[in-house]
């Protein structure tokens, strides 16, 4: 009888322990669910700066306006990048992006102020983990700026090196829909730049410049612009900086537009754990050099009118494509 009582209590204690373990496990699981759901809410958003203090602070301020108070924005040093965990890192400029990738290849990175040519390969190899808002302007849009300024233009001159020729592949196929054609002139070495440019300018109604640092850089731009000017040809692109140097016009994405889209990407990452594919901002503006236009005796509409003309061309073509 005593043995039966002892056995009863042992079984009861065992079942009580099992029930207690189940209760504890359930409590842990139930508590873990909201913890996991709230994990992204606790993540900071890190910023790897460009080194230009004024630029970095300006972008951070714009991000704070777009993201609101619910998110901490923290500048991160190269040493701390390795310890950033799964928090997203916004990099400002290609150098910052390269530094982050060298230190922590697993970090989720959103690149700003990086061109499509620079970023596309990284994003293709690490979809969802590496993304960005392109800093450059689609070449088709740049070409249509030239068309809006010179409505009679039908031919566009392009210059590249052998390695950068692919920058123009898509553009060349797109142009016929807009009554334009282009020819690519390849420069084999630095000594051939001006002779090749001269041939290109004899062909094209204007020169379209891509963000190709082998061709368009501080060392060459003065010679390119002077050669074009002497042959009464305009240069479109590749950026605002070159307009100040002597290009007639270029599209550009305003910082607020780029930051607004970057904020959308960050919010998407915090919800899903992945970034959308890299893309351009939703809208662009145009920088023009009035002095160059006057020197070449080219009448210019306002920037707003040129922008509307480009949008009209793009919208018209999209509409025909949908029919």
Write a concise synopsis of the structure shown:
With 323 residues, this protein is of the alpha/beta class. The protein is built from 13 helices and eleven strands.
Key features of this structure:
323 residues, five-stranded parallel beta sheet, 13 helices, Rossmann fold, 52% helix, four-stranded parallel beta sheet, disordered N terminus, alpha/beta
What does this structure look like?
This protein has 323 residues and is α/β, with parallel strands linked by helices. The chain folds into 3 domains: 1-31; 42-134 and 254-272, Response regulator (Rossmann fold, 3-Layer(aba) Sandwich), CATH 3.40.50.2300; 139-252 and 289-322, Response regulator (Rossmann fold, 3-Layer(aba) Sandwich). The protein contains 13 helices and 11 strands. The strands form 3 sheets. The chain has a 5-stranded parallel β-sheet, sandwiched between helices. β4 (109-114), α5 (116-125) and β5 (130-134) form a beta-alpha-beta unit.
Give the proportion of residues in helices.
40-55%
Strand order of the largest sheet: 2-1-3-4-5
Oligomer: single chain
Largest sheet: 5 strands, parallel
The count of DSSP E runs of length 2 or more, i.e. the number of strands, is: 11
The domain count comes to 3
Task: Report the CATH C-level class of the largest domain.
Answer: Alpha Beta
Low-confidence stretches: 3-9, 11-38
The number of distinct helices, counting runs of at least 4 residues, comes to: 13
Name given to the CATH architecture of the largest domain:
3-Layer(aba) Sandwich
Shape: elongated
Beta-strand residue percentage? 5-15%
CATH topology of the largest domain, which one?
Rossmann fold
Give, in order, the helices and strands. Answer: HEHEHEHEHEHEHEHEHEHEHEHH
Rounded to the nearest angstrom, the radius of gyration is: 28 Å
């Amino acid at each position: 009888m005593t043995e039966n009582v002892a056995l009863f209590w042992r079984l009861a204690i065992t079942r009580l322990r099992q029930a207690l373990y189940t209760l504890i496990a359930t409590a842990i699981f139930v508590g873990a669910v909201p913890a996991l759901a709230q994990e992204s809410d606790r993540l900071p958003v890190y910023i790897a700066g460009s080194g230009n203090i004024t630029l970095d602070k300006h972008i951070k301020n714009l991000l704070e306006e777009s993201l609101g108070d619910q998110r901490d924005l923290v500048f991160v040093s190269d040493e701390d990048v390795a310890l950033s965990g799964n928090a997203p890192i916004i990099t400002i400029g290609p150098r910052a992006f390269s530094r982050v990738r060298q230190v922590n290849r697993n970090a989720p990175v959103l690149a700003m102020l990086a061109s499509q040519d620079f970023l596309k390969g990284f994003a293709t190899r690490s979809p969802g983990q590496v993304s960005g808002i392109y800093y450059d302007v689609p070449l088709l849009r740049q070409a249509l700026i030239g068309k809006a300024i010179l409505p009679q233009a039908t031919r566009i001159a392009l210059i590249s090196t052998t390695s950068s020729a692919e920058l123009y592949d898509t553009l060349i196929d797109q142009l016929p829909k807009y009554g334009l054609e282009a020819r690519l002139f390849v420069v084999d070495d630095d000594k051939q730049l001006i002779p090749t440019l001269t041939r290109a300018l004899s062909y094209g109604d204007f020169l379209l410049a891509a963000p190709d640092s082998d061709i368009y850089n501080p060392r060459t731009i003065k010679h390119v612009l002077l050669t074009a000017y002497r042959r009464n040809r305009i240069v479109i692109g590749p950026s605002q900086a070159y307009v100040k140097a002597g290009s007639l016009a270029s599209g550009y994405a305003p910082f607020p537009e780029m930051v607004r889209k970057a904020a959308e990407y960050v919010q998407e990452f915090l919800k899903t754990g992945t970034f959308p594919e890299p893309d351009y901002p939703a809208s662009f503006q145009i920088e023009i050099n009035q002095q160059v236009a006057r020197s070449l005796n080219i009448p210019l509409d306002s920037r707003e009118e040129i922008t509307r003309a480009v949008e009209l061309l793009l919208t018209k073509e999209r509409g025909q494509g949908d029919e």
